[in-house]
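Might I ask for a little of your time on a matter of protein folding? Here, with my thanks, is the record as I have it:
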Amino acid sequence: MNNTARNTLVLASLLIVTGAVSYAISGRKHSKLNELKTKNKELTQQIANIKNMMENKEELEQERELQIALASQRSKAIIDIDTPTITYDYLLSLLRWMNKDIIYDFALSGKADSKEASQGTYNEYVLSGKCNYLDFVDFTRNLEYQRAVITVEDISLAYTAASNDTIDFSMIFRTHYQQGGVPISELSAKKIDKYVTAYQLFRPRVYETPIDYDYDTRLLDIDNSTLIAITGSKAFIRDSKGLIRILSPGDRVLWGYLYQVYSKEGKAIFRVNKYGYEEDQILTISKER
């Protein structure tokens, strides 16, 4: 093989190798370029979304405030986070809403993470102290019936000789919470319509001596009264003294109130809470001779 042929062969080989290398480099650059284009497109979309959010910032804030306001007015709401300080402050808020002053000891007794507990995420607290019996009943009702999801797990009561109507109490309750819940500071006080009577089923188990129950003697005692007539939504009732009382739905009677009047059936239904639970009591028109 002469020099010319050899040189031609070498140059051809170099040309082929150079072409292959150039093709590989070009392919890599093209792939990298496509990757950069995709990232650039994503970044452009993210920037557009951010700009759109910034333009609608006021609307989003108003929507958030509206959602928080609606959540704060719901009958029950799970709070977003809980600590002993948060729950302690909430108890103070309850007492402030009730206009009561109860002295108690407060401590965290346990907690459950959502991964571990089948009943959800909660902190468990122990409350113990001394107060008036009806104040404690009212406090317990507010604890469970107010907007924050709090469950009373156990209550212990004991008679104290310091006062005829004072008890020592111990309570275990749980404050439930979850991510995405409502800030507890946003919850407003809720009016609780359930009526607490002077008589409670457990009072005889608390006190060593029987207690006389005070009640408003001006209220109609339907146990000793007679329904004599119904006109429209008004009920005419004769009490034990022979006086005629005219009542409309919602008017109070001893232990409860007039719930509804049925003129066709000739009956009046009362909602009463004489023994610690609410029940219906019915009076029908008496056909006197």
In short: The chain has three domains: 1-55, 84-198, 222-284. The chain has a mean pLDDT of 79. The CA atoms of residues 225 and 242 lie 9 Å apart.
